[in-house]
Amino acid sequence: MTNKEDGSRPFYICNCFTTDNIFLEDYKVHVRFSSERQFRLDYQPLLRRLGCVTEQQFEDVRNKISQEVDRRRCLSETSAERAIAIKDKYQPLHPHVYHLQESFLAPKFKQIVEYCRSSNVSEEGLRDMLEEEAAAKVYRFPVFEKGFCEELVEELEHFEQSSAPKGRPNTMNHYGILLNELGFDEGFLTPLRELYLHPLTSLLYPDCGGRCLDSHKAFVVKYDMNEDLDLSYHYDNAEVTLNVSLGKDFTGGNLYFGDMRQVPLSEMECSEVEHRVTEGLLHRGQHMHGALPIASGQRWNLIVWTRASQERNKLCPMCNRRPTLVQGEGFADGFTDHSDSPLNTSCVMT
């Protein structure tokens, strides 16, 4: 299996993908399911405290988990089938937005990237150009021009209203679009990661794989008064995440950040961060965060999970174990078969 995005080495998923980090929406908790016995022992007391009291309620939970496990086992195949169907059936409204152009980018972002490429660059100088939030190592900066954000949202709405097949981004977001299936990887997202994000992450997150990003997963999520309103507390399957607010008109919906996922919840204090249209928030993927409910309107966000196989090959960020590799499509979950390095937990608390 090769990476069909650029014809280079193959990428893989970790075998834990089918069993770990399954989100139970009714109880706002992530669980692991390897067997019914394991699940009952690990989670039945917790679920009872959260309101899952009767045996029928527990059976309903188990059935939902079984459906999610089956979906994940078939995901690579069904995603590839959707991408083929979309390419065959869907006619884009704005074809030019699928290919990254300098004119799409905010002047301040281009200035920041140019500084990162200069010979006199320093981490301190870069930080002076960014807006650092109260949460540690969370940075804000303008990413796109307003006109591009409007056109991209129009394109996404056009696709959403089409008859083309669609897959949800993850178990936590019901409404959104997987951008690799829509055809954004090769012409837009890979150049964005390689040419524009990598210079920043190399300086800001060298201890978390920021210098060796080699894949990504990108999607958009939509929040609406009649659909998803918020996003529960979680961490990302990424080394570094870029979250850009694309629009449209909304109030509320600020993000909040706690600490790295290794810190006990009882010891975390959260900082609220306003999300402004056209601006991006850059943060470590293992930094716990969530989104407060929107109060009105509709919001679209572009999420780019950037990944470094050099880091995740040592320790899977989702199960915290040495990854057991399973073949995947495209960039899969960013693992490669070069996994003979010693464990490295350098990104835990820095």
Q: What do you see in this structure?
A:
The protein is α+β, with helices and mostly antiparallel strands. It has a domain of 212 residues: Sandwich (Jelly Rolls). It has 9 helices and 16 strands. Strands 4, 5, 6, 7, 9, 10, 13 and 15 form an 8-stranded antiparallel sheet that branches. It has a 4-stranded antiparallel sheet with strand order 8-14-11-12, with no helix packed on it. Strands 1-16 form a two-stranded antiparallel sheet. A hairpin with a 6-residue loop joins strand 4 and strand 5. Helix 4 packs across helix 8. The longest helix is centred in the middle third of the chain and has 20 residues. This is 2-oxoglutarate and iron-dependent oxygenase domain-containing protein 2.
Outline the secondary-structure elements.
Blueprint: E1 12-14, E2 22-24, E3 29-31, H1 36-49, H2 55-73, H3 75-89, H4 107-116, H5 123-129, E4 131-132, E5 139-142, H6 146-160, E6 176-178, H7 179-182, H8 185-204, E7 215-224, E8 231-234, E9 240-247, E10 250-252, E11 255-260, E12 271-273, E13 279-284, E14 287-291, E15 294-307, H9 309-312, E16 325-327
Antiparallel strand pairs: 1-16, 2-3, 4-5, 5-13, 6-7, 7-15, 8-14, 9-13, 9-15, 10-15, 11-12, 11-14
Helix pairs in contact: 4-8
So what's the CATH class of the domain at 96-307?
Mainly Beta
Coarse morphology:
globular
Strand content: 15-25%
Helix fraction, binned, reads 25-40%
| Structural class by SSE content | alpha+beta
CATH superfamily of the domain at 96-307: q2cbj1_9rhob like domain
| Poorly predicted runs | 339-350
Largest sheet: 8 strands, antiparallel
Counting DSSP E segments of at least 2 residues, the number of strands comes to 16
